[in-house]
Amino acid sequence: MTSPTSTTVSGTPSGDGRAAHTPAAAAPGTPGHTGSRASRVLGILALGSIVLLVLYGLVWSPADAEMADSVRLMYIHVPAASFMYTGCFITAVASAMWLRRRTPGWDALAGASAEVALVFAAITLGTGSLWGRPTWGTYWTWDARLTSTALLTTLLVGYLALRRLDVDPTARSTRAAVLGLLLVPNVIIVNRSVEWWRSLHQRSTLVKLDPTIEGQMLVALMVGFLAIGLVFTWLLVHRFRVAWLEYQSERLDLDLALAERRAEAGRTTGAGEAPA
Amino acid sequence: MTHAGYIAAGWGGAAALIGAYAAWVLRRGRALSRQVPPEERRWS
Description:
- The structure holds 2 protein chains of 2 kinds.
- Chain A is mainly alpha-helical.
- Chain A is 69% helix and 0% strand.
- Chain A has 7 helices and no strands.
- In chain A, α2 runs antiparallel to α3 and α4 (144-163) packs antiparallel against α5 (169-181).
- The longest helix of chain A is centred in the C-terminal third of the chain and has 59 residues, at 215-273.
- In chain A, 39% of the residues are buried.
- Residues 1-24 of chain A have low confidence and may be disordered.
- The mean pLDDT of chain B is 92.
- Chain B contains 1 helix and no strands.
- In chain B, 68% of the residues lie in helices and 0% in strands.
- The chains are: A mainly alpha, B mainly alpha.
């Protein structure tokens, strides 16, 4: 990764020392996007698995004896919740690595992962509420699992808001990293809440040697994990690249401003010396 | 199918959210890529 302290201006410098930080900075013929061969393959796999999920989740799998067809919401809800946890863990690990190494790549990864985790948190809460209405008779209840998930979502929103503060970038990243580390205990609380407190929410279905779901419904849930996992990875790859571009753009803006100030100072000095 | 409205809202909402977010990420990536030199875009 490029050092955050580097002040080298990339691109083609012009006569007055200004870097070519303009739309023309991208060389002709180079792809102006965040895609690569690997990410395109990943995207195709994700789309294929989504088609498979629709077929398994909505067509091929049977209705549940108790939940009837509302069980079909579980094929999105459970994987979305799992990848929300994954996003939070990646943010926490990347935050720890940023605090240790101070390289911008880790900071970019932490921010990108938190944002993708927030998307999956919204899906988790939305599908959970829609499942709760026909099953529990209400969209929302202040149950331990639901409340702790809402708190985790709020923490993610706060984390992303902190990253947008207009302050010194290093201080901002440090504060965000500390908050990012706090996601882990929150994830543990959300995950264990159904065991620690009396909860309306059902206990874990899969984290057992003998899962409480089987047959085509188990296959549909596994396909859900595959599809949502591939979508999560694709989104994370692209969002990380956008975060990296944001960092580079910010750095180039700073370099450009410094170059302009130096050129201005040089002109002022030259003008001051001329009469003598 | 029972609870068809809830299922359609859940699946449709999730698809719409992911689709909208993916489109925003790609659009922002394209806009920023034009401002950053190719050597800083290590994936291209």
